[in-house]
User: What shape does this take?
Amino acid sequence: MLDAKWIRAEPEKLAELLRKKRFDLDVGWLTKIDSQRKELQLATETLQNERNTRSKQIGKAKAAGEDISGILQSMDELKGNLEEKKEQLGALQQQLHEYLMGVPNVPETAVPEGNDETANKVVLEWGTLPSFDFPVKDHTDIGEELDEGLDFTSASKLTGSRFVVLRGAVAALHRALIQFMLDIHTGNHDYKEVYVPFLVNSDSLTGTGQLPKFEDDLFKLRGNHEYYLIPTAEVPVTNLVRDEIIDAGILPLKFACHTRCFRSEAGSYGKDTKGMIRQHQFEKVELVQIVTPEDSAAALEELTGHAEKILQLLELPYQKVILCGGDLGFAASKSYDLEVWLPSQNCYREISSCSSFTDFQARRMQARWRNPATGKPELVHTVNGSGLAIGRTLVAILENFQTESGQVKIPEVLQHYMKGQELLR
Assistant: This one.
């Protein structure tokens, strides 16, 4: 959420900044509502002061033995007017709050102009694209032809489309990827591992920006409790600091977390319906950093580099792109996507998105740190990204390390997690 004082002070400037995100800020409506708010605020304060004055008059009149019936009658009228103005002010403030909750974060200056992903800018390419002297298969064909691999038929029977059952060595490889990523991030990159609930309340989703705007993308549970399945570990992990004032001495906070993630994929009808690229249930190792504002920019670069390191150790070719304004997420001020090479599609596909949210999420969560220079609480900055998406990493391994015989080479860094196994057969 943006600073309401900034919005009131410079609505035209803010509108210009938000145009890069292809968001049209209704400056006229905001100006009108703010003017009405000021009028009601002034009227409420005036009536409250008048009420206080008359209360004192009643006290004096009682002490003097005077008749106070007239003052009491006027007090009743005043009370009614005051309650009416307070109700009108509350309704107006709620209306304004609901609008502001739908206003996205402001993009940084470095964010390129553009309407969609076609305008994203490649800033780095790493690795050598594999070459094959045989017809390349996609991960679904590879996985289904393994002795025990990907089983979409059983998943469809158990649940429906966009789910998968992993069997045997492929299930073990999936588990190995999780352990490998957590080991690297906690052992080499100084993250603290956390385990969090997969169900969260609406306050948590509001804090990180999924609610109210993206409710259609969420799975909401029915029952006595209003719980949602998490779309990403970003939600529970970032909310660990909600309503907290953090001591400056323990910043930055760096968390690594493995969770399952659940998304309805609303709006993705017809996209990636085959295979494991876009599923309703998947797993990620998520990286979250809570930092001071001055460290925010460096934290994004560091965190993105940590996600890149996983791809490098797995020897998976990838590219790093900076997202343009039209493709930038609602809460993000700047984002890098890491896109891994998929031979069957002859293109790069997203495997991680790393973003800086400045103080946008912190303001919604009231997550603060105490600045030792001022002694006052100030909003923290939040940064997060996938380090990496497990299913898509598995897909990339199956495709990039496939052999003509239908076997798959297991990356060397994973083999000791697989009890020395070198091939999926």
About this structure: The first helix runs from residue 4 to 9. The domain at 4-100 is CATH 1.10.287.40 (Helix Hairpins).
